[in-house]
Write a structure and sequence with these properties.
Length: 242
C-alpha cells in the first residue's frame, strides 16, 4: 500500500489527499450479528489480519486484496441504497492511517457506521459516533502467528476497554465451557457487567450448540445476550457476499 499523500501546496498547486485501502470485498446484505442484527447493511471487508483464530469464517481475507482509493471505496458504498455500513475484516485497524480519514468522510456524508475489530490494535482516534463491536479473543481461540506475542496484545485490549462508548459492544466467541468461564472471569475482572446486553456471547459455529451456551448464560446471572450468526441461518454457511 502506498503512503497516503498529505494535502500540501507544491509549485502553487494544491494536491489532493489520496488514501488507499486494501479491500477484500464490498457487498450488500443483512447484518447478521450484534445489536443491529437483521438490518440491511453494506459491508466493507478490508484485507489482512495479524491473528489466526480457529473459528474464523473469513480466512480468505487474511490474504492481500485489491488496493482502492478512498474515493473508489466511497463510490462503491454509495452505489447501494443503504445508510448503514459495517467495516470489518480481516482486521480493519491494521489500516488505521487510511481507514480513519475514510470514517470521517462517511460520517460527514451521514452514514451510520459499525466497526468490527479484534480489539488488539489501538482504537484511539475512532470517533465516538462509530459503533465498535470488539471481538474479545479468548486465549485458546487463536493460534500461533509468526512474530506475534499473544500475551503482549492484551494490554492494548485493556486500554481499548477504556474507550468504549454507550453504543459499543463486546463479543466473546465460545468454543467450550472453559471458554465461557474465561469470559465470565474477564467480565468480572474488568467490571464490565454494566454493559448488560452489550456483552455478546456467540457459540463457535459447529463447535458449541446454541442451546448449551444459552443454558450457560442463563445460569451465569449475567445480563448478556446470546449472539447467533443470523446470516448463517438464512444462507449457506459457506456462502460469501451474504
Amino acid at each position: 500500500m502506498r503512503t497516503p499523500w498529505r494535502t500540501s501546496r507544491a509549485g502553487g498547486k494544491r494536491r489532493s489527499t489520496v488514501h488507499e485501502l486494501i479491500v477484500d470485498e464490498i457487498f450488500y446484505s443483512i447484518q447478521g450479528e450484534a445489536r443491529d442484527a437483521g438490518r440491511p447493511c453494506v459491508f466493507l471487508r478490508l484485507s489482512l489480519c495479524d491473528l489466526r483464530c480457529h473459528y474464523c469464517d473469513t480466512k480468505y481475507s487474511w490474504k492481500r486484496g485489491r488496493e482502492l482509493s478512498s474515493d473508489e471505496v466511497l463510490a462503491a458504498l454509495a452505489g447501494h441504497r443503504c445508510r448503514l455500513i459495517c467495516i470489518t475484516g480481516g482486521e480493519p485497524m491494521l489500516q488505521r492511517d487510511a481507514l480513519l480519514p475514510l470514517i470521517d468522510a462517511l460520517l460527514g456524508a451521514g452514514y451510520e457506521l459499525i466497526l468490527e475489530t479484534h480489539g488488539m490494535a489501538p482504537l484511539d482516534g475512532v470517533p465516538d459516533a462509530v459503533c465498535k463491536v470488539v471481538d474479545v479473543k479468548i486465549p485458546n481461540s487463536f493460534g500461533v502467528v509468526k512474530g506475534v506475542d499473544k500475551e503482549a496484545l492484551y494490554p492494548t485490549l485493556e486500554h481499548n476497554l477504556t474507550l468504549l462508548g454507550d453504543r459499543d459492544q463486546l463479543k466473546f466467541v465460545i468454543g467450550s465451557r472453559d471458554d465461557f468461564d474465561w469470559a465470565l472471569r474477564f467480565v468480572e475482572r474488568h467490571r464490565l457487567g454494566p454493559l448488560g446486553d452489550r456483552l455478546l456471547f456467540s457459540p463457535s459455529y459447529g463447535v458449541v450448540e446454541p442451546h448449551d451456551l444459552a443454558e450457560w448464560l442463563k445460569t451465569s446471572g449475567l445480563p448478556g445476550r446470546l449472539n447467533l450468526q443470523l446470516h448463517k441461518l438464512i444462507w449457506d454457511p459457506e456462502s460469501r457476499g451474504v
